[in-house]
Design goal:
about 180 residues, alpha+beta, five-stranded mixed beta sheet, about 15% helix
Length: about 180
């Protein structure tokens, strides 16, 4: 096909679709391969897009049975049994004060692991793994205030909020040490 098209050819739907397909088929232009980047797991919470560094994620587990726990803060949804391991599940929507939509079949638990703690994060849906150039991370948005800003690693230009999983796992607020009164 020629670089210059006649006006009548530009009106032909097949020509237009072929040009669009050629443009969409080009590999995405990204930062140089040597540029530092983050591998993240992207997920959704209440119509917002979040991500966690993949190095902290052990696995994504479909939400099957969630056992509620008495005497725990509201942001602890309960516990799940993952191959014989009992893992507490933190509901980030309650923790970040986001609107709740109820549980569906699409909900999943993102299992995080640190040296001394296994923790599940309840997510509306897991989107997938992607690479983000470090230079594309912006420090924060003015709308992210309060508790969400404490766990923020950065925000991309397409409004993906990258959370600091290490900070979440190290926070003493998520450890429940209350004893029920006798």
């Amino acid at each position: 096909m020629k670089n210059e098209l006649s006006p009548s050819a530009m009106l032909d739907p097949k020509v237009i679709l072929r040009l669009r397909a050629r443009q969409l088929a080009r590999p995405p232009q990204s930062a140089s391969p040597d540029a530092p980047s983050l591998e993240v797991l992207e997920f959704r919470l209440a119509q917002e897009r979040y991500a966690l560094e993949i190095r902290h994620v052990r696995e994504v587990y479909p939400l099957k049975e969630l056992t509620p726990l008495p005497c725990t803060p509201a942001f602890i949804s309960g516990i799940v049994n993952v191959r014989g391991r009992i893992v507490p599940v933190l509901d980030l929507k309650k923790f970040f004060d986001l609107p709740e939509t109820g549980l569906t079949d699409l909900h999943c638990v993102i299992l995080l692991r640190s040296d001394d703690l296994d923790l599940g994060l309840l997510a509306d849906v897991s989107v997938g793994v992607r690479s983000i150039p470090l230079e594309s991370l912006q420090p924060s948005l003015p709308t992210l205030t309060g508790i969400r800003s404490e766990y923020l690693k950065g925000v991309t230009s397409d409004r993906l909020v990258v959370l600091d999983a290490a900070r979440i796992l190290a926070d003493p607020k998520i450890i429940v040490q209350d004893e029920p009164e006798a």
